[in-house]
Write a structure and sequence with these properties.
Strand content: over 45%
Number of strands: 51
Number of helices: 5
Shape: globular
């Protein structure tokens, strides 16, 4: 009944919007058009043909009618101006013609219009002089940039904010069709690697012809057309042909109150066959130079981990010694200082038979700040509350070089080489002060911990691959071979100092005992991986094909961890054997698979499975003990796609995978970084299996400008590996993993976006619904605990752009979270919330402009957290532009005018409920000057 009630309320909310969108404003003037629609070849009148009149300027709908039984049509009460006549009829190619009405020509007679029957399914609508705003080509959604309004000197980021189904937050993070965008390409090529903001904040919006959104597959999956599960949500920016010759860029500098500043220099030179770009940024205001990521082949919070295909990675808690390490990313916590620079070059050579793409990036990031964490641990014996304060001082310097070379060997064969290398150095200094309370009134002092961590981490990463593809004379018969290798070396060293006071539970408030830790820790970890994969496709008929593959993988690695106590103050030479080890790893995997593929004009279907046999051998170099494991992994998959029309598509996906227990779950390396939380291994763990289902639907109606994007997924895990948390009366927790064979865990989410242009007021409006939920298990003091969580988020958004006058956008809506634990059914942690964000600019005379943006967040109190959270972030700016094309801008900006910017999150996991508050960038004022220069297509912008 809950979903029935929700659906009813949702329908009621949508009804007035759709009613408003259906209104048509008709001018009361005497302008009109008439004509008749026929198929002259078949000598028939096309009764009921849809006849629409569009504005020539932006392709928006003015009015429409239907042809009479004799094929005739007439539309009155138009106004003077430039228009487009669009006529559509099932199975016929669309007819489009431009026309004008003025005081001399008040009526346009099209006469007898002959429409042509389609001899085959057209790939796109035939339009003279205009194009649809959105086209759906298989799994790709393509936006026509010319159909969306932008202000002068706008960047790609400003264009993306107007596209239905795409959201850009205040930090530049892009979400498309419900998923985070990880890559932004330019004309299908990498542009500075993995940082989308270097494209969206760098390239001018008026240079863009198309914006394409799709799931980028692996090279092998792209070539064979068979999904291998490796997908990255990607945006491709296609440039206009006349914008590929010349140079453009930007220089900006700003100084603010309280020591805030920023500066950036961007330069790009493009020709038809080459692109060169360079950038340098520096700032501590959290707005620039924070986006690029280190594309690591290895990455896990565990010391060793099995990959999805059976391979095993050695890493460590990013560094291996168990101490904190910095990942080099700024997520809004603390105050950052970023310095970055980079170079990009790509070119097509030898008549486009060869291409090269190279990127170099170098930079540093320092983050300092504080945070407070309140957490509640629900156990059968009662509730334990933790209050933890942390100060952080993190620094990372890194540089990365990557190179891709492609060559067309002949008309049927291609070869691609790729390599990248990364050097990374980081230093982390964290201090923690933690208080634990429990007892009948949940306020009895149990322990106090004060600890500090000072850690250095140096890493070297190198990856290389070669990919060969061959198409044979028989259509559909192909061969592809992929060979890749990866090397990583990490060296870490650091200090752990900890003091824990345990209090007497009988004599409340009296100190019982104290535990001291003063240790030096080292970690030397090396890993090497080599793998190959051969894929062959054989057409079985015009619609069916068979895909078979075989892969071989070899992994080796070493992990040498040391912990030392001081022999004398400051001299750490006494090795602690229980906290040290030296492991050697060898692993061999063989994988084979077969997939059947069916493809027709409207339907694509493939299904099959892969199976992997893995032999694993781990040796303790100190004791000589060996851990050997042989296991089989299964990877079934099925994909279905149905194309209803050029503008409507549905895709369904399924894949399953065996999930092996990690080495730290089986035989953990003891880590005493937090003496109040200890992990024990379980050699009897067995694999779990995860099934994942997802669906994607998109639809766009050209005439009404209505778009619908829907994405949903559901996954469940059988025989899950869960935590068994045992918390004693002092608040100390011991964790050991085990299988729950009679339970299954699940995760699910749904994203729905509806957008429509309201013609009468020339405004874009939309609704979005997001649902996220999970059901997970763990054991608390040997009792099974089920944690349920589901969050509903509803948003309504509107936007309007009037060139050189004003623009604004507003998004707002409520959210509600249901959450609870079976161990404490009497505690209700349901919570309400409301979110809103806005932005706008007004363009004044004398080239002045004023703007504002901000957000509002409210989270209601719950039974665990009995206070509300309110935060209003208000930013404002005033600017004046100079020169003919407004290239020079002087601006004064105020950040967080109300001085309310405090970070805040709430979450639940296992039997823990957590609330975080953290320091971040507060109120400041900044004066800045920027200059955009542009000389593209041989025509300079003065």
């Amino acid at each position: 009944m809950a979903f029935t009630t929700f659906d009813m309320k949702f329908t009621i909310l949508l009804t007035p919007v759709f009613l408003l969108c259906s209104l048509r404003g008709l001018a009361q003037n005497g302008y009109s058009v008439k004509g008749a629609v026929t198929d002259t070849a078949a000598k028939t009148k096309l009764y009921n043909t849809a006849v629409s009149v569009l504005n020539a300027k932006d392709s928006t709908l003015v009015t429409f009618t239907r042809a009479a039984k004799d094929g005739s049509f007439s539309i009155r009460n138009l106004h003077k101006g430039n228009f487009i006549l669009l006529m559509t009829y099932p199975s016929y190619a669309d007819y489009v013609e431009q026309f004008s009405l003025d005081s001399i020509k008040t009526m346009h007679d099209f006469g007898e219009v002959s429409m042509i029957l389609k001899s085959k399914l057209l790939s796109e609508v035939l339009i003279k002089g205009t194009r649809a705003a959105i086209k759906i080509k298989g799994d790709t959604t393509e936006y026509n940039a010319a159909a969306f309004k932008i202000q002068p000197n706008a960047k790609v980021e400003d264009l993306l904010k107007q596209l239905p189904g795409i959201q850009v937050d205040k930090d530049g993070k892009i979400t498309a069709e419900g998923q985070e965008v990880k890559k932004v390409l330019v004309d299908g090529e990498e542009f500075f690697g993995d940082d989308p903001t270097l494209v969206t904040k760098n390239i001018r919006a008026d240079m863009v012809d198309k914006v394409q959104v799709y799931d980028k597959k692996s090279d092998q999956a792209t070539f064979t057309g068979i999904d291998d599960g490796q997908k990255t949500k990607t945006i491709n920016i296609k440039l206009k042909e006349d914008k590929k010759n010349g140079y453009f860029g930007k220089a900006e500098a700003g100084a603010g109150s309280d020591g805030y500043y920023e500066g950036q220099l961007l330069f790009n030179k493009f020709t038809a066959k080459q692109k060169f770009s360079a950038y340098a940024t520096v700032g501590n205001d959290g707005k620039i130079g924070l986006g690029w990521q280190d594309n690591q082949t290895y990455g896990s919070s565990d010391n060793m981990q099995f990959g999805d295909n059976g391979e095993i990675y050695i890493t460590g808690s990013d560094n291996g010694d168990g101490l904190d390490s910095f990942n080099g990313q700024y997520n809004g916590q603390g105050t950052p200082l970023a310095r970055n620079g980079g170079l990009h070059y790509d070119a097509k050579l030898n008549g486009d038979k060869e291409s090269i793409n190279a990127n170099y990036k170098v930079g540093s990031l320092e983050v300092t700040g504080t945070q407070n964490t309140l957490s509640q641990n629900d156990t059968p014996q009662g509730i334990f509350n933790t209050n933890a304060d942390q100060t952080q001082d993190d620094f990372m310097f890194r540089q990365k070089l990557d190179l891709t070379y492609k060559i067309k060997l002949d008309t049927t064969a291609d070869l691609k080489f790729a390599a990248d290398g990364t050097l990374r150095n980081s230093h982390t200094k964290n201090n923690y002060f933690t208080t634990n309370r429990g007892g009948l009134n949940m306020d009895t002092l149990l322990n106090i911990n004060n600890r500090s961590i000072d850690n250095h981490d140096d890493a070297k990463i190198f990856d290389a691959s070669a990919f060969y593809t061959k198409k044979f004379h028989k259509k559909g018969r192909t061969l592809s071979v992929l060979a890749s290798m990866s090397e990583k070396e990490t060296n870490s060293y650091g200090y752990l100092k900890s003091k824990t006071d345990y209090y007497d539970l009988k004599n409340l408030g009296m100190l019982d005992s104290t535990q001291y830790i003063d240790q030096y820790k080292t970690a030397d970890i090396q890993s090497s991986e080599f793998k190959t994969n051969l894929t062959y496709t054989e057409p079985l008929s015009t619609a069916f094909s068979l895909v078979v593959n075989y892969g071989l993988g070899v992994n080796t690695g070493t992990s040498n961890l040391g912990t030392f106590n001081p022999k004398t103050p400051g001299v750490y030479t006494d090795k602690v054997d229980s906290l040290s080890n030296n492991y050697k790893l060898n692993e061999l995997s063989n994988q084979g698979g077969a997939i059947i593929n069916y493809k027709s004009k409207k339907v694509t279907l493939n299904f099959g499975t892969k199976v992997s046999n893995v032999n694993f051998d781990q040796t303790d170099e100190v004791s000589g003990d060996q851990l050997k494991r042989d296991f089989i992994d299964w990877f079934p998959q099925a994909n279905f796609s149905y194309r209803f029309s050029q503008q409507q598509n549905l895709s369904l996906y399924y894949n399953g995978s065996t999930v092996q227990p990690t080495i730290s779950q089986i035989q953990p390396i003891v880590v005493n970084t937090d003496p109040l939380n200890i992990t024990l291994g379980n050699p009897n763990l067995t694999p779990s299996f995860t099934n994942r289902f997802s669906a994607f639907y998109n639809s766009y109606k050209i005439i009404s400008g209505q778009s619908i994007f829907m994405y949903g997924n559901y996954s469940y895990t059988t025989n899950p590996i869960v935590s068994n948390l045992t918390t004693d009366s002092t608040g100390k927790t011991i964790n050991q993993y085990l299988n729950l064979g009679n339970k299954k865990q699940s995760d699910y989410n749904l994203d729905l976006d509806l957008d429509k242009k309201i013609e009468k007021i020339d405004m874009n409006a939309g609704l979005s619904l997001n649902l996220n939920g999970s059901e997970s298990y763990n054991l608390s003091n040997d009792e099974v605990n089920l944690t349920k969580s589901i969050t509903y988020n509803f948003q309504f958004h509107i936007s309007k752009y009037v060139e050189k006058k004003y623009d604004f956008r507003v998004s707002a809506g409520p959210n509600y979270t249901f959450g609870g634990s079976s161990l404490q059914p009497g505690i209700n942690n349901n919570g309400r919330g409301f979110d809103m964000d806005w932005g706008g600019t007004v363009y004044l005379p004398a080239k002045f402009q004023i703007g504002t943006n901000g957000s509002y967040e409210w989270r209601g109190k719950t039974e665990t957290f009995n206070t509300d959270f309110n935060r209003t972030l208000l930013n404002a700016n005033i600017a004046k532009t100079f020169m003919k094309s407004d290239n020079l801008k002087l601006s004064f900006a105020a950040n967080d005018l109300l001085n309310q910017n405090v970070g805040f999150t709430r979450s639940s996991s296992a039997n823990f409920i957590t609330q975080n508050t953290y320091s971040t960038i507060r109120r400041y004022f900044m004066l800045s000057i920027s200059y955009d220069f542009n000389k593209m297509g041989g025509v300079p912008t003065k």
